[in-house]
Amino acid sequence: MPEQEMQLTISTSPHLRSPETVSSAMRDVLIALLPVTLISIYMYRWYAVFLIAVSMVSAALFELLFRKIMKKQATLHDCSALVTGLLLALCLRPGTPWWTVVLGAFFAVGIAKELMGGLGWNRFNPALFGLAAVTLLAPLYVGTTSTFAAPLRQFFGSLDVITQATPLALLKQGLYDQLSLSGLLIASPGGALGETSALALIIGGAYLLYKKQIRWQIPASMIATVLVIATFWGNPLENIAAGVPLYHVLAGGLLLGAFFMATDWVTSPITAKGELVFGIAIGILVMLFRKALGPTEGVAFSILIMNAFVPLIDRLTKRPKFGEIPAKKAAVAPARPAVSKGN
Amino acid sequence: MSVRTFQRGVFLPHYKEFSESEPISTISLPPEVIIPLQQHIGAPNQALVAAGDKVKAGQKIGESGAFVSAPVHASVDGTVTAVEPRPTFTGASVECVVIAVDREQQEPQWPEQDHAALTKEEIKAAIKEAGIVGMGGAAFPTHVKLSPPSPIDTIVINACECEPFLTCDHRMMLERTSDLVEGAKLIARVVEAENIVFGVEINKPDAIEALEKRIAGENNISVVRLEVKYPQGSEKQLIKAALDREVPPGKLPLEVGVVVQNVATAVAVYEACRFNKPLIERVLTYTGDAAAKPGNLRVRLGTPISHVLKERGGIKGAPPAEDGEIPMPPHLVGKVIMGGPMTGWAQSHLNSPIVKGTSGILLFTPSMVAKTAHTDCVRCGKCVDHCPMFLYPNYIGLYAEKGSFDRAAEWGAMDCFECGICVYVCPANRPIVQFVRQTKREIAAARAAKAK
């Protein structure tokens, strides 16, 4: 046998692999985020482009930097830093100062992901962790925002929509006449980049469901829970007449959270049953935040809180092995001869 | 007609088109056969011959006194040149009887007898004497499987052939329909089972038709149509799909009154009872995108895979073999596998002999060779979603990787039958089956240490 000419790969079974990889999944997420990204750029022009560019580039650089410091292989090709960067940008409002974005990316990719051990070991959704960090740190630099944002205005021109009240604020104040369901659904300015079009988010979510990158359990249970609570909090008939339940689904970050944040592989439960529990709990928390607290970032904090409970949910929803529970039908199925041992 | 299946599992590409329409053909005898003394699960055999002995095809050359064991037979007329360890398909060296094949071969004589007149004990003795083992790959001695401690009501013939590429059982169903049904009846008689069920995946409609035609009018024999899904041919999944019975974890099918036998095994049982013919040859699928001439081949046991390659034109696109050397250019062939693509063994050389459990020889081009680098688990849950045993392959992998084998066992490692789905679907390409095997070894060692 001409051994020197043979270069046979020796590896253990199985010898087939599905074409699916982490990078291909992340690319699907980027594709799914394209509609809402484009609409936010259409709405906010250069402000959106700037925000997205700063966020994605700094997320990628922080990943490179942290992995370099920790002497690990670069993993930019898995595209997860780009996804985190884009998601973070979509959570921010136009006019957010560039250094806030960079700080957010630092917390998202550097602290929440790489310091925890890299992709797969992070307990909290990186983009939301970054958002929460800059939100909580905001009081430290209150007042500086305008001075830092002001120079941008010279280049990008002024944009009235930036300063207008967000739909969620209007909802909180009961100003339903200033809200338009069709506007919320199709495209309307106000709030963060990712809150400009419910329809774009639904299209992206549908794409991820079609590509089997996410399951229906989390988005469905989250949205259904919010619908139910929004209906029955107060007078159900009045709520329905005013369209309150739908506003709660379409306004704010609920859809972005339901399709793109809560469904994050790493930080959501492992089984479908666990995902239902997770989604319902987030839905309840979101409504508590929205009803009891100010109309800010209820979705982000709800998801982050439930991220912490994922290991517990996994353990509590552990399913029985094959054959561990006798099939219910066994009693009804044609009885086989009674097994008497030792005859 | 309803199509049945089990829960979870995965749809794999079939890759059966290479060989499914190739009728079974017989491979010539090689110059030398290498017959491992142990080709089964159970006690090892002792050689009954020594170097220099003349042997005849069908002569018993290895046996053990143990019940859980199966004898081996010379597959050719020839002269024993050595009894020594040789590398086999798993990479491990096993004691083998090496036989130089005579140029002149006597046509083996297999006197016919009325197999319908045999008693259940005679059938079982014939099966043991013929050295029959599970030919789907598990290689568990068949006579042991047919000695259940509790009553059996149904025999399920595993005619799924759920692994991609493999088509030899399909061809057997078409070409040996009658022998297969007779073999199944003999198996049923041994354990006094009143029902026989053939479980066939619906991508073999011609096989279903042939079987139904053959069993028309016979009570207690039926064909169940099964969805084309991997691992439909795993015993527990097959029993669930065909009979809606669930075998509990850690238990055997006999627990629910069932014995499963595969197609090739049933045909071998027929031959053993009808002709007293020992297991000296088998049909396997020779295929893969790098195979010049794929086919379903009847091969004498002990034939080295290099001989099969030579006979079938070697590697697609490479020059034919010369002077016994088979060109294996690295840009045309990347992997040689014995068995199926999901559970088979990659080969480092072409000298491994074909054994009783060899269902296929696969030749992969480099583009078919799966990448082996892996990253950390990203908790996508795909392995959990598809696991046919409802285990948690993600946690098994994570804990085994860290050396926490007890925790890996808690999440189900010991109930895994290594179908390979978790690795197939894993976007991080994690070698979970390897982690499972490691866990099983470690736990077994720990238990053995405790018992001492």
Walk me through this protein's architecture.
The complex is a heterodimer of chains A (343) and B (452). Chain A is an all-alpha fold and 343 residues long. Chain A is built from 17 helices and no strands. Chain A has one domain: Ammonium transporter fold (Orthogonal Bundle), CATH 1.10.3430. Chain B has 452 residues and is α/β, with parallel strands linked by helices. Chain B contains 13 helices and 17 strands. In chain B, the strands form 4 sheets. Chain B has a 6-stranded mixed β-sheet. A 4-stranded antiparallel β-sheet of chain B has the order 2-8-7-4, with no helix packed on it. Chain B is globular, with a radius of gyration of 22 Å. The model of chain B has no long low-confidence stretch (mean pLDDT 93). The chains are: A mainly alpha (343), B alpha/beta (452).
Summarize this structure briefly.
Chain A has 343 residues and is mainly α. Chain A contains 17 helices and no strands.
Shape of chain B: globular
Mean pLDDT of chain A: 84
Look up the CATH topology of the domain at 115-275 in chain B. Rossmann fold
| Overall geometry of chain A | globular
Which pair of chains forms the biggest interface, and how many residues does each contribute?
A: A-B, 56 and 82 residues
Kindly name the structural category of chain A.
mainly alpha
- Unreliable spans of chain B are none
Radius of gyration of chain B: 22 Å
The CATH homologous superfamily of the domain at 115-275 in chain B corresponds to NADH-ubiquinone oxidoreductase 51kDa subunit
Query: Can you write the helix and strand succession of chain A as a string?
Result: HHHHHHHHHHHHHHHHH
How many structural units, i.e. domains of chain A?
Answer: 1
Q: What's the number of extended β-strand segments of chain A? A: 0
> Mean pLDDT of chain B, rounded to whole units?
93
Helix content of chain A: 55-70%
Q: How many DSSP helices of chain B?
A: 13
CATH class of chain A: Mainly Alpha
Structural class of chain B: alpha/beta
